[in-house]
Please model this.
Amino acid sequence: MDITERSMDHKIGRAKKMMLWFGIASMVMMFAGITSAYVVSKNRPDWISDFQLPPTLYWSTLVIVVSSITFILAKRSIYNGNRSAGTLLLLATLGLGITFVALQFESFSAIINAGYYFTGSESTITTSFIYVVVLLHLAHLTAGLIVLLVVIYNHFKQRYQKGQMLGIELGATFWHFLDILWVYLFVFLYFFR
Model:
């Protein structure tokens, strides 16, 4: 590969990273707007102040944090040429991501079973906000799972190695953003009831 090709690859890589960061910035603004509206709505007379988060939300938070750790370790293993460990850790990350989604839906069930509904005549503004926040995060996590599947596919095709890690770096950045976003949302929902 000559200098011109390397320079072009570097520019393309920088452009892809910048596009990812623009996307992340727009998601941050969206969730900042939603959580700001949540804070403002707390002053409403129909706000439920004794709402308790189900224990499955605590477990899902732990699961997504661990999934970020496995992704970091996977990336490091692939960079160091340990493909089998990288494969195992990427698959573990995928399994943890799916577990997170399952725990989120279990949390919805627990909230509904406690008598709090998200929509309809029995819903409240409190539960509707929680529903919107969690569903929006799940939509982004679905995109994250798709990105993770692409990373795993490219790993099996042996497209990542020392010096050619752009795809896995982009995937890891997005995944870690989703992790940080969920931790923020969880802490927000925990303290701003």
